[in-house]
Amino acid sequence: MNDKIYKVVLFAAALIMPIVCGGVVYALVTDAYEAFEHFGFFEFLTSSEWSYTDGAEQYGALPFITGTLMTTLLALVFCIPFSLPVALFVGEYFKDTMAASVLSTVTDLLAGIPSIIYGLWGFYTLRPLIMVLNISPQGSGILTASLVLAIMIVPYAASLSAEFIKMVPNDLKEGAYSLGATRAEVIRKVVFPVAGSGVFSSYVLAIGRALGETMTVTMLIGNTNNIPDSITSTGNSMASIIANQFGEASDLRFSSLIAIGLVLFFITAFINMIGKMMIKRARIS
Amino acid sequence: MATIKIKNRLAKDKAMLWTVCLFAALTAVPLFAILGEVLLRGYDQLSWSFFTEPTPTAYKAMKAIEAGEPIPGGIANGIIGTLIMLGMAAVFAIPTGILCGAFLAENPKSRFAQVVSYLTDLLQGTPSVIIGIVTYIWVVVPMKGYSAIAGSVALFVMMLPLIIRSTEETLKILPASLKEAGLALGGNRARVMLKVQLPAAFGGIFTGVLLAISRVIGETAPLMFTALGCSFIRFAIDKPISAVPLLIWEFFNDPNLQELIWGASLFLLLFVLTLNLTAKYLAKKWNQ
């Protein structure tokens, strides 16, 4: 009897997940419906107009989708030269040493810093630097946001990559060493081919993180509703347009913002799903 | 000829090692740059009154700046709001998360558990701003106003997957013999879970809860559309309320209050990093 109650209680607790996730999708879909119905699904996604003058309201998500993709990809590019060395340092060169544990504590702490503080630092330190270096006149923009985003995703990419690099079997590496390979050659010819898919998947998950990052991007991207024409120009990401305008939006604009949220939700869900699937496969092999 | 080639390879090997070390070390720079900046600009704002007084109005702050005095007031309203919302979220998220995690650990092969496990990943990866707008639709719209309740619902949804995962993972790495011994002694499954497995997993679950708290305590985006913010100390849970990250956002946007940013950020940063380090230390200790 007791076992039965126990099972029912656990099952009931587990039901919370389908309820919450179903509720998220339901809320987003019902409130995004108006925008999609008004503008048409594909027109909404491909229109670059975002104007809320009364009577001539026109909302399209393209500038923000572009902004999100640009910041995310740039962040990924800036992140790799740092996260890969960290992963090699922790998972190969100094595996299980004090130095590795210090470095992984440092990256853990980086992961713990709230995004609003990253935003402040980017705004008060990095932005003036970019102005001084004459990279862009206003300082804020896609580039500034991406640089800080890159720092934010380094810990995620590095710690997961290190895990896979650590798992490369020693006898494979020893085989290469016994043939006279140097450590750099072992890394290139043995570690990367074996751990490669796992390392790759950690970058997919890092992308998933960067896509939805809100406060940092909102504080640094410059908040203009146009399609950014270069990496130094200002723009808005899907998350930052929501953060900026949700509080004051009503009716059609409200629905359009929810629609952007829905699109962002599905993009991140899709990327995360791919990442998780790849990790599972990499772990099995 | 051959020796040149070998020298070349050895040089490449060395270059690789130094590049890895250099770039790995560079990764630490932002941490210290951020810590340093927040510490240097914020330390002189921390005082007793900073933690006991609410935020000043923009007018009061302007007057103080004009008179060349330090801005009066502090972030007590934010600290109290954060504690109230975090407390409410934790009270619901911890038991639900542990039970749900126990379900996943007990039924690893059931189809439903796989779905739940997948949804946990989905929710964990969902951007916090989306949790914010969804909670707005769920709670703020029907209640016809922003409230501490709405804020804690958003935090609850964000904490849940983190607690589920840490519970599940900790329970799964416990030796099976532990559970079997409990069952062999005649305990039913609920009793074995409560008296044997959960106590043995306490360390891991506790670490997970600490990490979940440190993750959501700095969240700003989900609170902007749910708790909204409030400039005085308030304990009502059905009214708008402030939180420390919300105050930082407010100070950032209000030129008169900008001086207060660094004190508030320093407080938040120290709190979050201490929680993080404590969790990591405890995890290591319990693993041994």
Largest beta-sheet characterization of chain A:
2 strands, antiparallel
Number of strands of chain A: 2
Question: Strands of the largest sheet of chain A, in order across it?
Answer: 1-2
Mean pLDDT of chain A: 94
Judging from the principal axes of the Cα atoms, what is the shape of chain B? flat
Give the overall shape of chain A, derived from the CA principal axes: globular
Order of helices and strands of chain B: HHHHHHHHHHHH
Name the beta content range of chain A. Answer: under 5%
Biggest pleated sheet of chain B? none
How many helices of chain A? Answer: 12
Strand content of chain B: under 5%
Poorly predicted tracts of residues of chain A: none
Description:
The complex is a heterodimer of chains A (about 280) and B (about 290). Chain A contains 12 helices and 2 strands. Chain A has about 280 residues and is mainly alpha-helical. In chain A, helix 4 packs parallel to helix 7 (about 140-165), helix 4 (about 60-95) runs antiparallel to helix 9 (about 185-210) and helix 7 (about 140-165) packs across helix 9 (about 185-210). Chain A is globular and about 75 Å long. In chain A, about 50% of the residues are buried. The model of chain A has no long low-confidence stretch (mean pLDDT about 95). Chain B has about 290 residues and is mostly helical. Chain B has 12 helices and no strands. Chain B has helices spanning about 1-40, 50, 60-65, 75-105, 110-125, 130-145, 150-175, 175-185, 190-215, 220-225, 245-255, 260-285. Chain B is flat and about 70 Å long. The model of chain B has no long low-confidence stretch (mean pLDDT about 95). Classes of the chains: A mainly alpha (about 280), B mainly alpha (about 290). At the A-B interface, helix 1, helix 2, helix 4, helix 5 and helix 6 of A face helix 1, helix 4, helix 5, helix 6 and helix 7 of B.
